[in-house]
Design goal:
Length: about 130
């Protein structure tokens, strides 16, 4: 591990709040680091949209140029990301809408984008 580095400049300007985790990051076979995160964006109309996303860093993190990757559906929070046997990334996120479900999204491009996977009916989210 090296010294701590300032990385808040990696977030998009419209992200008014963001957090990493829970959990750590993944390192893909290509050396890309994938960090699970969540954020809020406040629109011009004052509406606050909350969603999960990933931060990406290539070259095994040696050149730590973090950038925002794919963003999942609105009303998701506190996500985790795993690599499937086929190499796809699966994002599993907490629901903030009050429906007590989990949401999934899948990426086949290393986290650059996510396609909505839908709701997981079980296990129920206890929040």
């Amino acid at each position: 591990w090296g010294c701590a580095r300032e990385v808040s400049s990696a977030k998009r300007a419209e992200m008014t709040w963001y957090a990493t985790g829970p959990g750590g990051a993944l390192q893909l076979e290509c050396g890309r680091l994938v960090f699970s995160c969540n954020h809020a964006e406040t629109g011009a109309d004052g509406f606050v949209r909350r969603a999960t996303h990933v931060f990406l860093a290539d070259a095994h993190g040696d050149e730590l140029e973090l950038r925002v990757g794919g963003v999942a559906d609105a009303w998701t929070n506190e996500c985790a990301v795993v690599v499937g046997a086929d190499g796809a990334l699966l994002l599993n996120a907490r629901d903030l809408s009050g429906r007590c479900v989990r949401w999934t999204a899948e990426s086949r491009d290393g986290g650059e984008s996510f396609e909505a996977g839908g709701q997981l009916p079980a296990p129920l989210d206890p929040s």
